[in-house]
Amino acid sequence: MSNINTPKKRGGLFDIRHVAGLGYVVVDDLGARRGGPSPFKRQMATLRDQLEAEADKAAKRGPRPCLRCANDFHSEGIHNRLCPHCRNISSGEQSVRPSIPARKFG
Ligand SMILES: [Zn+2]
Predict the structure, then answer these.
(1) Per-domain residue ranges for the chain?
(2) Which comes out higher in pLDDT, residue 90 or 96?
(3) Where are the extended beta strands (E) located within the chain?
């Protein structure tokens, strides 16, 4: 007998687990608890869906090399190409050198 009723994992980052003595929790792909515990699995499923929706949106965010200084910074989104430092500079300065300085990483 095959368990065809098992919901297929959507390849999401978040998972619901049952922890003995606690209840249901939502964990991320690293196993860190992101929500719960709750005695209601449905509640955690809702939370899991929310977290996954947020993660999808956030997929466009994250570390990004600054177009100006080439340092990695936490981009707020695809529109966000300058690190906060360079954004401050360019807002007060008209000529922005487009060339990226050669910089050793590490
Ligand atoms: Zn920068």
Answers:
(1) 15-58, 61-106
(2) 90
(3) 15-19, 23-27, 33-38, 62-65, 72-75
